[in-house]
DNA sequence: TTTAATACCTAAGCGTTTTAGGTATATTTG
DNA sequence: CAAATATACCTAAAACGCTTAGGTATTAAA
C-alpha cells in the first residue's frame, strides 16, 4: 500500500478475527502474525496495546498472564460477547466493501 | 451496517472516484449521490466539506462557483494530480481488501 | 405559513492511530 | 564477551478523521 496505514477502524476486526482463529494469543504474537500473513498491513504496538485494553474493558476479551521462562506474556481470548462481536465486525466489513463497490462501480477483488 | 459510519479514510476515495465518474459535482450533490447508490453509507456534511477543502488545498481538486437561479453552488473537479491520486486511492483500497481477506481467511464479497 | 429540502459552512469533542518514547529479558552476531 | 537485535510489555502527546451540533440563506412543498 502506498499509504502506510490500514483503514482506520479495522484493527479491532483484525484482533477479534485472529482470536477466533487461534483461541489464545498475546499482543506481540498478533503483530507478528499480521506481518507474516499480510506484509503490507503494519500494525504498530502503539495502536495494538490500547486496542487490546479497550476490548478487555468492553468485556470482549479476557486476559491472563503466563510465564514462559523468565518472561511474562499476556494472553487474550474471546469472551462470549467477543465471539458475537467478532461476527458483527466481519459483517460490517463485508457490508462496507459491498457498498464501496456500488459507489466505485468496480469490483474490489479479483478472486 | 450495524455501525453507522464508514471506515475512516474512505471518504476521500469516495469523493475522488465520484469526480472521476462525473467530471463536475458540488458538495450537496455528492451527499445525495452516495445516499442514492449506497444507502447504508451516510456521509455527513460535517465530514464532507472539510474533506473537500482539504482536497482543494492539496491541489487535487479545483473549485468554481456557479449561480443557479438565486442560489450558488460550488462545483469541484479533479486536477491532473487528483486524477492520479484517484487511481492510487482505488489501488490502496483494493490492496486493503486483499490483505484483509488474507487475515480473515475469507472472501469479503460474493460477486 | 410553517416545514422540509437545497446549499453552503464552522467548531467542539471523540475515538483511533501515529509517533516516539520507556523497561526488561533473551538471543544472535561480530 | 559485548553489542545489537528480537521478544514482550507499556504509555503519552499529537495528529487525524469523523460525529455532533450548531449556523446562514434560498427554494419548494404541505
From TrEMBL, chains A, B:
Q: Which residues form the signal peptide?
A: none
Q: Which InterPro entries match?
A: Metal_resp_DNA-bind_regulator (IPR052509), Tscrpt_reg_PadR_N (IPR005149), WH-like_DNA-bd_sf (IPR036388), WH_DNA-bd_sf (IPR036390)
Transcription regulator PadR N-terminal domain residues: 15-85
Q: Which residues cross the membrane?
A: none
Q: What is this protein called?
A: Helix-turn-helix transcriptional regulator
